[in-house]
Amino acid sequence: MPALRVIKRDEPWRGGALAIVLGALAFSLGAGILMLAAQGKSPVQGAVVLWQGTFGNVFALEDALRKSVPIFLCSLGVAVAFRMQVWNIGAEGQFALGAIGATWAALTFPGLPKIVLLPVMFLAALLAGGLWALIPAWLKLKLKVSEIITTLMLNYIAILLLDYLVFGVWKDPTSFGFPMTPEFSPAAILGPIGGTRLHWGFAVCLVAGVGLWAFFRFTLLGYELKAGGEGARVARYAGLPYGFLVGFVMTVSGALAGLAGCVETSAVLGRLQPSLMAGYGYTAIVVAWLARLEPLPIALASFLLAVLRVGVENLQLEMQIPAAYGMIMEGLILLSVLAGQFFQTFRLGRREG
Amino acid sequence: MDQLPARPPRLALPDAEPVVALRGLTKRFGKVLANDQITLEIRPGRIKALLGENGAGKSTLMGMLAGRLVPDAGRMEVHGREVRFASAREAIAAGIGMVYQHFMLVEAMTVAENVLLGQEPGFFLSPRDMERRVAELAAQYRLDIDPRARVGDLSMGEKQLVEILKLLARDSRVLIFDEPTAVLTPAETFRLFEALWSMTAQGKAVVFISHKLEEVLAIADEIAVLRSGKVEAELRPEEIGSKADLARIMIGKDVLLEVDRTAAEVREQVLDIRNLNGLGLTDINLDLQRGEVLAVVGVAGNGQKALVEAVCGLTQPPKDTIFILGKPWREYYADPDWKHTLSYIPEDRLGLATMRNKNLVDNMLLTTRKGFRSGPLLQKARAVADTRELVRKYDIKPGRVRVLAWQLSGGNLQKAVLARELYREPRLIVAEQPTQGLDVAATEEVWRRLLDARDMAGILLVTGDLNEALQLADRVAVMYRGRVVAQFPVTDRDQVDKIGLYMAGVTDF
Fold first, then answer.
1. If you average pLDDT over residues B247-269, what whole number do you get?
2. What's the CATH code of the domain at A82?
């Protein structure tokens, strides 16, 4: 008989959420470093290189800040849907559609002044991402198809659509055959803030984050979304418009990912090209769970995961670590956070008698 | 199920030693005494029926036997030796297994894989070998099932056979069935009974928990009636004259709790059910006026649930059968107002009436939120203040509004639901088992609140507790197999005396 047994908690574990997240991060980082040993590399050197390529380096941190913008916006969107227990894992595709929408606006109206063109691009991105996400919502409500499957499959369709456009109709004739659109006109570029290397996408993040926080805290609809997360039966008991709510969260979720696609295309790349799709939409899911779906923690977790991405890139260069290492790390973090949530409701104690 | 199969001749196992003996088992949950000094013997080759109303203590008793609950006092003996179970696994190892109402099967795996799950001989499995073992076991007890079938494709009755096979494969000598026929069709019920007979013929002991009288009379060798946590009677089927006698023993006549009750002024009609057919219901005609209480009674599972869900908007009834506050069902549910309308106090307090991981303010808003809106905004401060006021007025412990729903005791949670629903000043209240699991003090308070609410509303009280119905109701409707078999004012003593008969489906006397 083991001396320990699992006991259900009578009270919620105060500070448990933070402890679980930190524990999961520490566990994944430890396991990740040990994996280096399995590859025949020195774990100590790996840890040092990882540190130097992240917190030990101002350029790396700036790079991480820029990468955290799309992760943050996608993750906010994912969290909105998750709060209502709608499992949108299609941020990647909605991100692509946002980029396509913004590119369409930028290529169609290159002559417009900046103050008009940028809002048009944002609007096109919000619409494209939101409508793309409405497809799985409709399938879920009308045909009872699991949104987990449809959102995931739509990701591949979105990426193929993006490829089709940059390899075909939107291809820059002067690109020597590279798959990319022509460069955007200066009016379509979201510029840097003052003299920094940070772009105005940060302001977009701030507005979206505060707006969403206020929406959930102060509005009736925000409350209804949280209540709707209890399931269709409770929704019917409480007279909540469940179908409308599912459509609404998916649209908002997709629109936020679309916004991320627009910011990334306009501020970072300045054109549409396949390298845009770096898996931010999937990282966003890890971030949302790490942050327990709350906006401010999402900001912190986005930055952390962006730091990890930058650090792993450096690790690849310096120590010839396979590219899959980063994905493995993200997967480890997600799984250990999910597994750690067990301790929110249970604790280990001594076996009685 | 109108004709039950004839009972085959019993094997004579007259004075076999009991496999399991329970001696003075007692179990409390807080203030509620769920089992009070229960003594029972379970013998091999016999079917022992455990009969009782909801909340009589059947599930608690079997929970202790199956190792899920630890008794507060008393002993359990298996083959004369005292045992203590720390888990269901230890009970199974001692040869005691239970088939629950909710099956615990892996839908994606085959019958054979499910049956042998957890007792595979080694790392490598031989599907053919597993299938052969399960087929032999099924043949031995004459259970008709294909070991290769995927469990997800099976009917409820077949899934139940898989659960039985799981216990047989673990050499269980005592098989406990918790309301096994609740999910079965009549034909499947026949087959289950044949399987039970086949098992007892081979020396297994069966415990059959039920509140369906005719089934108990049809299959039991011994009947134990449980009431309010005590063994009320132990009988043999031959000793029982009729279903009605058995019903009388099960329900009892002693009044446990009384409230003062004066008639309220009866006003406009708030609920009208006309010729409701469908949803498992037949020919339901009921009406309810503001100022009165109509109690719908019956043994659980006779259509009360379907009736409540249709009235309360969880399922859609056929057209023009239900009229709420003068409006047809569809019109009423298109956009019901939050105030002065229908309030539903469901049996499932934690899963339906409240959100378990939300605090009292959020839970208060669940049905009243439209009263706290200004434009698109929610008036949180006012909601907190009003919740605080309700917590004080209804004395909801522990007295804080930030406490989460799951942290409240059953009585306090029910008071919270009641406080919220009465805050809406409803015109029609549907209260479903409103005092189930509550102690005497909480029960009395809920009753008093409901009686006071008659000034503003008509109350449809759906209950399995006959005393509750008689204490609160102006009129009583008895349901049996989806029909209202009798409806009468509570002042009609003749009829009230026959409630036990009506509940057992006896209407010709």
1. 72
2. 1.10.3470
